[in-house]
Amino acid sequence: MSSPALPGFTPWPPDQIDHYRAETLWTGETFGALLTARATASPEAIAVVDAANRWTYAELDRRSRSLATGFARLGIRPRDRVLVQLPNRAEFVEVIFALFQLGALPVFCLPAHREAELIPIAAASGAVAMVTCAEHQRFDHAALADTVRRAVGTLRHVLLVVDDTAHEFAEGADDLADYRDEPGDLPEVDAGDVAFLQLSGGSTGIPKLIPRTHDDYLYSVRRSAEITDLGPDTVYLATLPIAHNFPMSSPGILGAIYAGGTVAMTPDPTPTTAFAAIERFGVTLTGLVPPLARLWVERAEKGGELPDLSSLKVVQVGGARCPDELARRVGPALGVTLQQVFGMAEGLVCYTRLDDPIDVVVGTQGRPMSDYDRIRIVDDADEEVEPGTDGNLMTQGPYTIRGYYDNPEANARSFTADGWYRTGDIVSLRPDGNLVVKGRAGDWVNRGGEKVSAEELEAYLLEHPGIRDAVIVGTPDPVLGQRICAFVQPLDPQTPPTLTTVRTFVRERGIAAWKMPDAVVTIAEFPETGVGKTSRRDLRRLLAEGHRAP
Ligand code: OOB
């Protein structure tokens, strides 16, 4: 509005901005202002709980403003980018609200990311600082952050959440606690500004960073909270890695805060730990990916000694296609209402509604959350398909981005000239308005909700000294939905690389563990399509027919 937008950000067209404001979808409120308003209205209500902390709204608000003041002292300014790599713990909420209060932009990284992901993300975002924990699940994140800082010139500071008081800080790293200053004056933040950068799954080359504004994201959070019926009594358990869009805002932790409810955290999503957290915190709602939902359902169906799960009212499943058979079991096994969620960090989120008939809840991925969402289902020539036929889903609307951050090549591929986002998903539309997700166009593997780009993994495999050529395909897996199969042409057919050596090699490139191949299949020649491209479909068929090393 008043100041020029962040360079590299593609705004909505001016008439759309006026329209969304006039319809009060975009209200002009920022996330920082939202928290302060909740803290003023109900200071003593519990905002965040985890194993070690229990913060009221007043406390969370004060902590985030005090940290924002400390960040400013460190030289972090409005619109600066800051990598945030934290597991599910209370400090995550404190840190992101501190950055919101300051008008600086968190860049949401996952705890599983390693230097092969973080260095390009830091470089592409021009991050000036990184907030992480010293150690998590016995991995040395302080050392990882130091590697990233040394590789990326803009990155001046590393701030660590430290549990061990004897921690030794490397040069350029500090204890986050030292920046909890007395809250001071903070700059005005414009709700039309970018609030944070989210990551698009599985990209190659320059990472695809997703700029979301306070206005657009808060609208999606508000609509999500309405649809999922949140209120002050809601206790949302962050079970999935919290930096994902799903646990963040669908309705997730931000929805819980919007509604004046409580955010509870579990660093470990397995039934043993998560069920205990449900009993301890009185959790009413959580979101799961299908493989995790299956683990929970199987544990509950097995019976025996279990924590009291009676507080739990709604379980959401999303991030990857939930098999109908699993969807049918969730409600009865856990004593809850199931809600399917089909969304993307770029924007559009679809929900089944809590009062939908069972065939909708079990057999569809729901419908867009907003009447202002627009969808088109098209063939490969961008012509609309007959209703009910499979096609490529495109969307635009009040919370779907118009472009990735500072990435013209990706934008040319993923957005049409008139602002439609090509989701890459193949869907069909039922007469009742609900979508059924059929698969993905393009070369991706959705491994239990984590997206892996075939191209990215192939590039790593091609660096392997024993591999001449490699093709990654996703193959069906009863638990994960898809698993990662690497077809490789060995340089020397006498000594083909094994699964173990390939996995070790890939791990040493410094990439997230979920991208490791699950299987390696040696093949002499790749089957080709009519136009000389490797045919992934034929490779999948070979695998289904039991093809193994020759
Ligand atoms: C969520 O967001 P992302 O950005 O990690 O991944 C988006 C992609 C979608 O384009 C689709 O391919 C897949 O994940 N997906 C699903 C799905 N939910 C997401 N595929 C089939 N069925 C579903 N229910 O994954 C995300 C963001 C917000 C809310 C929920 C999920």
Shape: globular
The main sheet comes to:
9 strands, mixed
Number of domains: 3
Mean pLDDT: 94
Word description of this protein:
This protein has 550 residues and is an alpha/beta fold. The chain folds into three domains: 159 residues, Rossmann fold; 224 residues, ANL, N-terminal domain (Rossmann fold), CATH 3.40.50; 101 residues, GMP Synthetase, Chain A, domain 3 (2-Layer Sandwich). Helix content is 32%, strand content 25%. It has 17 helices and 27 strands. Strands 2-1-13-12-14-15-16-17-18 form a nine-stranded mixed sheet. The longest helix is centred in the first third of the chain and has 17 residues. The model has no long low-confidence stretch (mean pLDDT 94). The chain binds 5'-O-[(R)-(benzoyloxy)(hydroxy)phosphoryl]adenosine. 5'-O-[(R)-(benzoyloxy)(hydroxy)phosphoryl]adenosine (OOB) binds next to α8, β16, β21 and β22. GO terms for molecular function: ligase activity, forming carbon-sulfur bonds. Keywords: Ligase. Pfam families: AMP-binding, AMP-binding_C. It comes from Nocardia jinanensis. This is 2,3-dihydroxybenzoate-AMP ligase.
